[in-house]
Amino acid sequence: MTQDDPLPPLRDVIERHDLRARKSLGQNFLLDLNLTAKIARQAGDLSACDVLEIGPGPGGLTRGLLSEGARKILAIEKDARCLPALAEIADAYPNRLDVIEGDALAIDPLAHLTPPIRVASNLPYNVGTELLIRWLTPKQWPPFWDSLTLMFQREVAQRITAETGSKAYGRLAILSQWRCDARIVLHLPPEAFCPPPKVSSAVVHLKMLPEPRFPADFKTLEHVVAAAFNQRRKMLRSSLKSVSPDIEDMLAAAGIKPTERAEQVSLEKFCALAREVAKA
Fold first, then answer.
1. Distance CA 36, CA 27 (A)
2. How many Cα atoms are found within 13 Å in the side-chain-facing hemisphere of 192?
């Protein structure tokens, strides 16, 4: 259930705490609380969920998630300057916001969260893709999270949701769509941020699948896909030579023409190829 936000406008908070966004931290702050609430709603009903948020900054999205009913939020923030502003939010929403100062790449959040867990973040540009890949490639599947609602540069969002045959289609699309339903749910222009970045942004929602979309050994699939897209202009019989000397026979068994290039091969056929490689 939506709750009125009792705190002052975000622009006032930023000015009072002198929170100028730092490029070195990949920061671009969202100031429009109507917009942050809209992003929060893309994560679905949060009333029975804990939420992990990375890089909350002054707390625009944090406030949106709380006002939209999140049971509890764990926010991980590297910039100590933002902690007083986040403390004010925690006071306004008692027992619903925990803040950890530190690097999200070095912190295990699970000790602080109770399932079901969703991740919702305006990710810092400089670590966004690395965090996504970590969340998509845990040692065990299903992962700790039910869904990811994440903001990226539009180019990255397009790579996550790309279809076979498109220029954006590659390793990130296969990694995301093998284990998730992935779609772009919101586009944001540069002027929505302070300071405005040079690129547009988009929010991607990824819903975890209980089982991968097609059977395949993860390490084998990743190896095959990486080899194929590392030389994406070459035909697969050439780009995949390093995978196996019998790669042409394996391609044929998977229903793939050896003369095709990586971007022409669907996720389903890449999984079929991974199974053929694993047999050997």
1. 15
2. 22
The answer as to CATH 1.10.8.100 being correct for domain 218-279 is yes
Give the burial string for 9-38 (b: 16+ CB within 10 Å, else e): ebeebbeebebebeeebbbbbbbbbebbbb
Q: Which residues contact 49 (CB under 8 A, 6 or more apart)?
A: 70, 71, 116, 117, 118, 146
pLDDT digits (tens, 9 = 90+) for 91-142: 999 999 999 999 999 999 999 999 999 999 998 878 999 999 999 999 999 9
With a threshold of 0.85, does the pTM exceed it? yes
- Residue 222 has a pLDDT of 97
Given a cut of 50, the residues of the chain with pLDDT beneath it are none
Q: Mapping DSSP to helix (H, G, I), strand (E, B) and coil, where does residue 10 land?
A: helix
51 Rama sector, left if φ>0, alpha if ψ -120 to 50, beta otherwise:
beta
Give the HSE-up count for residue 8: Cα atoms under 13 Å, Cβ half-sphere: 10
Question: What pLDDT does residue 193 have?
Answer: 87
Predicted local confidence at residue 4, as pLDDT: 75
Kind and range of the H or E element at 207?
Answer: strand 201-208
Superfamily of chain region 10-208:
Vaccinia Virus protein VP39 (3.40.50.150)
Given the structure tokens 């300057």, which residue do they identify?
81
Domain assignments of the chain as residue spans, ordered by start: 10-208, 218-279
* SS3 (DSSP) at 142: coil
The CA–CA distances, whole Å, from 51 to 7, 25, 34, 68, 256 equal: 20, 22, 19, 12, 42
Tokens representing 6? 């009792």
